[in-house]
Structure prediction request, 234 residues.
Amino acid sequence: MRIALLEDDEDQSRLIELWLTEAGHTVHGCTNGADFQRSVRNSSFDLLIIDWLLPDTSGIEVLDWVREYVDRQVPVLFVTVRDSEEDIVRALSHGADDYMIKPVRRMELLARISALGRRTQPQPDLHDLMFGVYHLNVTERTVNYQDAEVQLTPKEFELALFLFRNAGRLLSRGHILESVWGRRPDLNTRTVDTHISRLRRKLNLEPENGCRLTAVYHHGYRLEFLTENQEETA
Prediction:
């Protein structure tokens, strides 16, 4: 998973980043609320880990900002020394999905992250996927549009599968690059934009087909499946 970590203790941050990286996650660490908000605003993540006590703000204020301005599907794990029942209830009532009390134990942290991922992330599906007029055959790696197979390159199929499985989520270009191409998100490339344009044209990802693939300025893309009312107003 792509994880954004907000932890002002640099030693603790490096330790958590090491644990998560060794477990196969990609971690983007920040030591203050302003940098964290900037990172989350400009990219997309599968999980956010937030400390409570910060030099420029509080974890609760950051959490409130996340729930107001960021995709509400992203899970938030609080990791803090504050251990009172009132603190735990407050964090959960403000939108945290889980709460850990420091000192953090490696295996417990990884287990909680895994559990949050299972609850919130689309799970790999080896069966055919049906989305209205679209039929994705995961085994044969083909896409049919209105019962006719569309010729896609292997990378175009991987991109289509990633977008369809994450329908409704706002995905940054960096997130897409890491997930589909396995490349660093800071590379200066128009690979994602080029492939998105081809995919939109080949699959006719338009409201008349019950879906909408939109670009979000300075951020990335969102694929949405529309209701009948949305199709009429699109």
Notes: The longest helix spans residues 106-120. The chain has two domains: 2-120, 129-233. Residues 33 and 62 are 7 Å apart (CA to CA). The first strand starts at residue 2 and ends at 6.
